[in-house]
Amino acid sequence: MSPHDTAASASTRFGIELAAWVVGPWAVFDLTGFWLAALLSLILLVGLPAVFNTPGDKNITGVAVPGTVRVLIEALLTVTALVGAWIVWPLWGFILVAVAAAALVAFGLRRYRWLLAGAH
Known about the structure:
The protein is mostly helical. The protein has one domain (7-116). The protein is built from four helices and two strands, in the order H-H-E-E-H-H.
């Protein structure tokens, strides 16, 4: 495990992932009306962080990618959670996701610096 990952950063990251997994496909279905598109978006949102990992960041490494790629995957999940919450949830739901996203950045800053500094 990364020495820069803490319980706070891991839990906020997981919270954002959960939010993205719920509201991402929901928003896709809301916008397109196609359940297959929603299912494919769910597979993508769950699969990316599960498969592509930076060595030394977690106990299990699927496909090894540089830290920059991992940060981009997590940024995609965060943006998906925020945009999806804005589209399908009431304002208070979006605010909760926005607070979780801010906490994710605050608690994960050391880890993100380590990943962006060339972890691979």
